[in-house]
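Quick one: C-alpha cells for this chain, please?
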Amino acid sequence: MLDSVDPGPSAASRLASSCPGALRDSFWALISSRVLIWTAGTLTAVILGLHAGSATAFDPRNLASPFHSTLANVLVAPAARWDSTRYLEIAHWGYQHSAQTVFFPLYPGLVALGSAPLGNAGAVFVGILISSVCGLAALFLLHRLVELEFDAEVARNTVWIVAWLPVALFLSAVYSESVFLLLVIGSFYAGRLGRWWLAGLLGCLAAATRNSGGLLVVPLVLLYLYGPREDRKPDRPESGLRPRYVLEPDLLWIAAVPIGLLAYLVYLKLTLGHPLAPFNQQHHWHRSFFPLGGVPAGIWEGIKALIAAVPGGASLIGAHLNTDSITRRIVELSFLILGAVLLRMSWKRLPLAYTAFAGISFALAVSAPSSVEPLRSLPRFTLVLFPLWIALALWATERQLVRTVILVCGPLLVFWTYLFVSWTWAA
C-alpha cells in the first residue's frame, strides 16, 4: 500500500483557497447529470405512463404519484420509485410493522420533519430536495477529501465520475444514499482533519441511516492509528502493523458511532417490541445472512445469464430466463467484478482506512444474498463506497481517460433511469 501525498502544513490554506472551485465542480457535475436523468425519466413516464411495470403492486397507495396533476407526477417520476414508497410510508405513518424496520430512520425522519407543513403530497418534493442537497454536499466534501489526499485534478475527476455513474440517479432519488454518502465522507473528512468529535457524531448519524453505518468504527480507528492525519505528526515512522500514532483520549469519540444504531434498536423495543427486527426481518425481503454467500451464487447466476443470452443457450442450462432476469444478473456480475478490481486498486493506492471501509462494506453487501437474485441491489450499494471511485478516478486521470469513462457512463445512466422510472428494475 502507498500512503497518500502529504499536503504539508499549508493544506488548510490551500483547501480554503480552492473552496469555490470545489463547489463549482460539484455543482455542475450534479446538475449536468440530473438534466440527463430528468430528461430521460420524464420521457419514460410520458411514453409508458405512470403505472407501468410493477407500479400497482409496489405502490398501491400512489405515494410515488401523489398529485392530482399528471404533470407534477411526471416531474417527480425520475426520483420516486421502488423503495421510495417504503421511505414515504415511514415518513407518513411511522413504523407500522416489523418488516419496515430494515429501512433505518434518519432519512424518513428528515422527510417527515420537512414535509410536516406541506401534507402527504409534499413529502415527495421534500425527499427529492433532501437527497439533492445532500448529494451536492457529499460531492463537495468528496472533492475536499480527495484534494487533501492527492490534488485538485483528481478531486475534480472523482466528483464528475461519481455524479455520472449509472447508479448515480440515487443521488437525487427519494432514497437514503445521498444522506448516507454525505455522513460517511463527512466522518472521514473530519477524522482526516483531526476533528474526532465531529467524526464520531457524523458516524453516529450514519449508523442511524443504514445498517452498514456502524461499520465506520473500523476505518475510523485505522485512520486514527495509521493516518494520514492533519492534526498532528506521526509519533512513529511507518513500520508494518505497528500504529504510527499513540492512543489519546480523543479516540473515545469514535465510540459514538454505534450509538446511532443502539438508539434505533431501543426505539424499536419501545414501539414495536422487537429491537432486533432490522436483522430478523431480512427474510421478509427474501434475504438471508451468509458470509460472502452472494459471490459464488452471483457468479453462477451471472454465467447462466450469459449463456442464456446466446441463441439456444437456454437449453444448455436447462432453464428459461427472460430478458429482464438476464440483464439483472449480467449487470450484477459486472459490478461484482468491477468492485473487486477497484478494491484491489484502492489497496494499492489509498490509505488503509479507505480500503478497509470499502472492503468491509462490499463484503457486507454480498453477504445477504436473495434466494432468487444473489447480488440484488449490489450496483446501488456500491454507490456509497467512495474509495472505489477515487481509485477509478486515479486510474482514469493517469491515462487521460476521464472523458471516456463519463461518455461510457452517460448512456448507461439513461438506460438505468429508464429501468427505474418504468418500474422495471430498481438496481
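The CA atoms of residues 29 and 211 lie 28 Å apart.
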